[in-house]
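hiii, so i know i said id send this last week but things got crazy w the move. better late than never?? heres the sequnce for the chain we talked about at the cafe, plus the structure i predicted for it. fair warning i was half asleep when i ran it
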Amino acid sequence: MISLTEKEIKNFEKFRNELTRISKKYGIALKSIGGVMVGDIKEIECSDDHTSGDLYPRVIEWDEEEEI
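okay and structure toks below
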C-alpha cells in the first residue's frame, strides 16, 4: 500500500461520499477490492457494456499514476 497525500485522502473521502449518494440514486453498487487508482486524471472513459457486469476505464491518462 502506498502513502497518500492529504489532498488524495480528502479526494478519496469525497469520492466515497459521492459514490454512496449516486449508488442510492441509481440503485447500482460497485464492489472493488484493490485496484483503486488515485491521482490526477487527464482523461478517462469507462466501459459501457451493461451485460458484462464490469465497469472499468478503457481510456485513461494520468499526470502521475498511482495505485492503492
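btw The helical segments are 6-26. thought thatd interest u
miss u guys!!
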